[in-house]
């Protein structure tokens, strides 16, 4: 049971309305947060919803030195009937524990993870941005809080959830994404932490993402670390390829890419629609050849933040190319509509992915 200690001075309604009118992504935060502690031998304890506030951490806290930290990214949606929903929160809870296991951190009971997220959404439901597509982006995370400089798994942790009022991740009307293929930096190697959602993966990817932005692109694409040839994923999203024969392909999971929940849902929806869906390696040179020959007709990025976003252009030191008409394609649009429909409770949900917050 999560104890509630509501904010003594929540943001006044007029100030809140100004903040959520055009929030962008990840800069406007709500009034509350979830804070739960773990101590070895005692387990998880002191489950609380409290006023959002800066943390006091010992400067020797293990997370600051050895980066024992994991997180999730989720959204709470406003449903057509005025209620609120989460999309497959059980899948986020399960992935969180897989990340915890890889980073030698304690498991968090999955029902406590979902209860924590629901409790925060209920407390801060007034923060939903008013525009179409405005949602609460939820960031559950866990870090090693023990003050100790020896190199071993910490014995104390904190699990927290914060919420941010957000609009679209990419600028509305920005059209299809332009990608930069990093032929120099890689993100993850076999046996590494690529499949875990740990902060360190993102720290290591920032220079490549910054290079993409500097060159005028939206996102970086990483290649595999062994042959520097096979497409893996983008800095913060998975990737799909749509072929002229109507089939769909995405790089296989193998420990080096994040097992995206959106990726999994889209494969299921495409499969339900009778499409051929392949999880198979795809090489950069093949990608370029197929784009040139017209065999490849669409490409899109997908993830919680990105939803489903078309990819129009790809740039690399080894040569640039355009995909299809360089704009939103038919199948990308259809899958996007179906997914967003389920998330907002307006499309049939045969797999019971929508989780209503009560
Ligand atoms: N890949 C990376 C590196 C990500 O950060 C994300 C975002 O969470 C994804 C893929 C997509 O995962 P999901 O669909 O579960 O949000
Ligand atoms: C998400 O889609 O939730 C992510 O975590 C990607 C990025 C914003 C870090």
SSE inventory with pairings:
Layout lengths: L2 E2 L8 H9 L10 E8 L3 E9 L11 H4 L2 E3 L2 E5 L5 E4 L1 H14 L7 H14 L11 E10 L11 E11 L10 E6 L16 H16 L4 E5 L7 E4 L3 E6 L4 E3 L10 H12 L4 E3 L4 H10 L2 E8 L3 E9 L5 E2 L7 H14 L10 E4 L1
Parallel strand pairs: 1-3, 9-10, 9-16, 13-14
Antiparallel strand pairs: 2-3, 2-8, 4-7, 5-6, 5-7, 6-18, 7-8, 10-11, 12-13, 12-15, 15-16, 16-17
Helix pairs in contact: 3-4
The structure holds pyridoxal-5'-phosphate and 2-OXO-4-methylpentanoic acid.
Would you write up a description of this structure?
- The chain has helices at 13-21, 63-66, 89-102, 110-123, 199-214, 261-272, 284-293, 330-343, and strands at residues 3-4, 32-39, 43-51, 69-71, 74-78, 84-87, 135-144, 156-166, 177-182, 219-223, 231-234, 238-243, 248-250, 277-279, 296-303, 307-315, 321-322, 354-357.
- With 358 residues, it is α+β, with helices and mostly antiparallel strands.
- It has two domains: 3-166, Aminotransferase class 4, branched-chain amino acid transferase, N-terminal domain (D-amino Acid Aminotransferase, Chain A, domain 1, 2-Layer Sandwich); 177-343, D-amino Acid Aminotransferase, subunit A, domain 2 (D-amino Acid Aminotransferase, Chain A, domain 2), CATH 3.20.10.10.
- Strands 1, 2, 3, 4, 5, 6, 7, 8 and 18 form a nine-stranded mixed beta sheet that branches.
- A hairpin with a 4-residue loop joins β12 and β13.
- The site of pyridoxal-5'-phosphate has 12 residues, from α6.
